[in-house]
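Hi all, posting the design record for the shared folder.

TITLE: backbone redesign
STEP: 1 of 1
STRUCTURE INPUT:
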């Protein structure tokens, strides 16, 4: 919306908007968000009603986990990594494991919505060149991991157990845990159970909602609600490739296709459709049962923590000061702002993120 407004401004003959035009742009942004929220909410209501009766007439049968065909990943750009797999609760879980197995420091990267370990591909080479081991799992429902066909199976508890199982199965110690988006909500929820194996944290554009809500601007909250209502309407028809093109302007088409590779059709998108709706909006929400204790645990976390957020994230950029204030281990580590990057910071500025992590590990 801001890019459209800037183009409109340039047509009127000036490169930068005047203050009053900027204010009008903000007002238009708010109005458009409110309109979209209302439209998506009404459409979602009628979609729910229609599908309720549809499922009564044509009951949907669960066919067990789906597995994305390997040929969907055969032409990925910049992702030459050897696949590794674990069996967790009846699902095959994929992860990449690059660098020296006996490296002094191991880095585990957790992705969010609607991405997979492909999001971290730009970090792998710089981090392994620095002598570190890099592990990036795909959560169940994403990437090369199996996809549930029944949304009841897609739970926060399952993802927390997945994180713990990966750490225990690979016997990981002295880990630097890198989290982004839902990787943060999940990884930080599971942190207390793996705290003896984690030595450092790197927090990228994430949150532990509903905590920190007072730090988030009104416009950012509106942006999130628009996204949430849109995700509720589209459901398993959410167009992942178009979403990534909107979120990462200028992303090459073959890279955007890399994010769509795990999802041959809408049957594979249970996770994509459900994760946005699981974000807890109040302390009584189900996932808040885990994020509230996570917040309390982080308030006692004294191990080194790097808070690294981008400055153009329309959803979460306001949360960096919250984590700096909350976590004792972050107070002595200078926060990093990645300029010019949006929500998917490792896609926009992956090399810069990797450089800052290397420097952090040298402290």
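Okay, here is what came back for every position:
SEQUENCE:
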């Amino acid at each position: 919306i801001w890019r459209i407004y800037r183009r409109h401004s340039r047509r009127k003959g000036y490169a930068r908007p005047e203050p009053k035009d900027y204010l009008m742009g903000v007002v238009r942004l708010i109005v458009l968000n409110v309109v979209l929220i209302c439209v998506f909410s009404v459409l979602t209501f009628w979609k729910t009603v229609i599908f309720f009766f549809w499922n009564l007439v044509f009951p949907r049968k669960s066919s067990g986990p789906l597995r994305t065909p390997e040929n969907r990943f055969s032409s990925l750009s910049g992702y030459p990594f050897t696949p590794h797999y674990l069996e967790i609760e009846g699902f095959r879980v994929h992860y990449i494991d690059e660098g020296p197995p006996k490296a002094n420091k191991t880095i585990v990267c957790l992705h969010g919505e609607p991405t997979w370990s492909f999001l971290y591909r730009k970090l792998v080479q710089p981090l392994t060149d620095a002598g570190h081991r890099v592990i990036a799992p795909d959560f169940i429902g994403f990437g090369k991991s199996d996809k549930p066909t029944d949304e009841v199976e897609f739970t926060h508890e399952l993802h927390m157990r997945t994180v713990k199982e990966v750490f225990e199965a690979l016997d990981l110690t002295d880990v630097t845990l890198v989290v982004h988006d839902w990787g943060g909500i999940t990884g930080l929820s599971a942190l207390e159970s793996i705290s003896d194996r984690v030595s450092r944290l790197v927090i990228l554009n994430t949150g532990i909602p509903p905590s920190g809500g007072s730090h988030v601007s009104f416009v950012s909250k509106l942006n999130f609600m628009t996204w949430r209502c849109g995700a509720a309407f589209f459901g398993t028809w959410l167009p992942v490739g178009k979403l990534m093109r909107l979120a990462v302007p200028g992303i090459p088409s073959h890279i955007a296709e890399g994010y769509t590779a795990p999802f041959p059709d809408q049957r594979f998108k249970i996770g994509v459709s459900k994760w946005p709706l699981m974000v807890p909006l109040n302390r009584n929400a189900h996932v808040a049962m885990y994020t509230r204790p996570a917040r309390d645990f982080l308030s006692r976390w004294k191990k080194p923590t790097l808070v690294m957020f981008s400055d153009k994230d329309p959803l979460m950029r306001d949360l960096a000061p919250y984590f700096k204030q909350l976590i004792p281990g972050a107070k002595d580590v200078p926060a990093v702002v990645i300029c010019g990057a949006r929500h998917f910071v490792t896609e926009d500025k992956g090399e810069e993120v990797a450089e800052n992590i290397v420097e952090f590990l040298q402290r």
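COMMENT: The beta strands are 83-88, 91-98, 106-110, 133-137, 175-180, 198-204, 305-310, 336-338.
Let me know if anyone wants the other runs.
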